[in-house]
Amino acid sequence: MKYYPQDPVRVLARSPYWQMIYARSKELSHIRLFKNDKDFSAIQITFLYWLEIYSQAYQKFAEKDSLLSKEIINDDIEFDAYLYYISHKKSDKQGTQKRFNKKGAIGMPSLVQKKRS
User: Fold this and answer.
1) Which of 31, 49, 57, 65 has its CA 20 to 30 A from that of 89?
2) pTM of the model
């Protein structure tokens, strides 16, 4: 049971209607989401942000991402937790790669040589 109010911008952004319009507007230049083409208001920028986030989420859901379900997408708190987990998973992976891919000043991998006794 949900005891918290849903964000109306997010409800609109994840709706199939707006997802379809958003996908078509990316493919076809003559379909516009808003009457204005520039100088977007804060609410328009927020709406575009959530349209893109939910568009990517629906793509991952279609690709059978094991962490994502329709219930998670439709629940703001669970979806925020999913986004938080994914962002930290990516940053942990990048941190691991940085530790193992250190290069010397000339851009080549550094070699450690042991002194022979």
Assistant:
1) 49
2) 0.71
Vertex 57 angle, CA 53 and 18, to 5°? 65
Beta bridge partners of 109: 103
Q: Report which secondary-structure segment, H or E, holds 76.
A: helix 76-100
Please state whether 39 falls in left (phi above 0), alpha (psi between -120 and 50) or beta. Answer: left
For the cut 90, the answer to whether the pLDDT of residue 48 exceeds it is: yes
Tokens of 61: 């859901």
Q: Over 80: is that where the pLDDT of 101 sits?
A: no
Amino acid symbol at 80: D
What DSSP designation does 110 have? P
The token duo for 43 is 């609410």
